Amino acid sequence: MLINILLVIDFIMLAVVVSAYIYASRRERKYLRSEADQSLELQQKVYQAQVLKEISERIGYSLNTGKIVDIITSSLGNLLDYDTVAYMVLQEDGKVVFKCQVENSVNHEFIEQVKEKMLMSYEAILNKKISTAGLDESVTGNILNDNSKFRVTSFFNLPVVISRKLVGLINVASHEPGRYGEEQASILYAITNQAATAVSKLQEVLESEKGKLAAVIYSLADGVITVDLNYQLTVYNPVIKNILEIAHNKPLTMFDIVDALAGKIDLRTKIEQSIAENKTLNVPDVILKDKALELTISPVKDSGGTVIAATVVFHDITTEKTLEKTRQEFTAMMVHELRAPLTAVRWSSESLIKNLAANTGVDPAKVKDTVVTIETASNNMLELVNDLLDVAKIEAGKFELNIQDYDLVELINEQAKVFRPQAEVKHLAINVITPPKYMLKFDRVRVGQVLGNLLSNAIKYTDSGQIEVNLVPNAQEKTVAIGVKDSGIGVSHEDLSSLFSKFKQLKTGDHARKGTGLGLVVSRGIVEAHGGRIWAESAGENLGTTFNFSLPII
């Protein structure tokens, strides 16, 4: 009886122990599952952070999809064991890139099996046949051993989708049967997908920033190109095609740019020098056909200071060169124009002083001629200086007018009377064709200056015939036009548009007459200050010229 009681007690104690063990085992398993889940979640986060870190360090701004797949692939070794890990990318030009990393030595047939399985999967996803012509294949890692009997018995393919686009396929393969289950493949797909999703968000941000940068580059007046370290063109704006005169109907390549600059500058050498020396290079005065260019070549660095590309800015300095040439020509012309009257004043003054000092009886006629010469030379200098001052006032916007009611016909007749003696020296007639009277609001002095400039030019460039001045009201446009027509040497069609340019001296054919060309510039400023316009018409050389200007009827 006692033995039975002891057996019952032992059984009860055993049951309690077993129950406690089962309970403890359940808690342990629950705890382990929890720890495993947390470990997996932590592993996923670490993997994602690792991928993003490598992307930011290795590819910088370009987000090349092939490099992204390469980074994701190289990180899988931290998650599972395999014999080979490979990726396949179908590029936009249709070329297939296959890269395989061998962890455990396998044979060539093993690699071919991996490639075949990836192609079949890729074709199934895209629902089209993929050509392997020109396949870009690379196998790295352990040396292949054809004595190995390993075959692919376990594998899975992971599609990499970035911004809703299939950018590549990753394959993990092993010779051990049953190495990869469905659950493990799903977990790895989830982890890879998390990294791809993070990259997609990063790509959206970078595309947005690249769009802003492209907008800025496209709006620049200068031509801009950027080349990578392989001398491949990565960025350019449309202006560069205009500057280098390259057709717009095809994509720009570095060959086009090099051909356009052939014989002018070795651009590749300059870029390599800028990258090697890590400094900006300036190349001035590159003459390309009718253009003058200045090139600035600078290295492009990433956030770590590593040079990753080079940029070239093409600045068109043709206008600056033209202005500099015009300035030099104008300076020389001013020196010439001022030297003649100053020399006349000096010689005449010295002659007069010597005669007065000799006290041998000064001829009043000679004194008068000398004084007249001095006066004429002084007036010529004063006229030139006044023209320069008027141009300066016009350009500074400080040109003031004294607008009042005047008889425009009376002013025309006065100016014609002033210039008739000068015209008669060349046997020219000045005919005025106007109504008896025409009242208008204008600045009498300044409009008289315009008429004087036009009549002076007409006489200067006419050797025979006549000069005609007319006045024609235009009631519809509410303007009145004054024309000064000569029968002189005329102006070619090409020169008409530049007649009113600053410091442009009128030249036609073999004819060139003394003058600075400032008179027409001042005349344009006066007319435009009145709210009118001035223009010239000519049928061609030796067919005469008509200068017209209009004033508003107010």
| CATH fold field value of the largest domain | Beta-Lactamase
Assign a percent range to the helix content.
40-55%
- Measured distance between first and last alpha carbons: 141 Å
CATH architecture title of the largest domain: 2-Layer Sandwich
Describe the strand arrangement of the main beta sheet, using strand numbers: 3-2-1-5-4
How would a textbook summarize the main sheet? Answer: 5 strands, mixed
Given the helix and strand composition, which structural class is it? alpha+beta
Overall CATH class of the largest domain: Alpha Beta
Radius of gyration (CA) equals: 45 Å
Structural commentary:
It is elongated and about 130 Å long. Helix 8 (318-358) packs antiparallel against helix 9 (364-396) and helix 9 (364-396) crosses helix 13 (518-529). By secondary structure, the protein is an alpha+beta fold. The N and C termini lie far apart (141 Å). The chain has a five-stranded mixed sheet, with helices on both faces. Mean pLDDT is 78; it is low at 1-26, 28-33 and 508-513. The longest helix has 57 residues, at 2-58. A hairpin with a 5-residue loop joins strand 9 and strand 10 (307-316). Helices cover 49% and strands 23% of the residues.
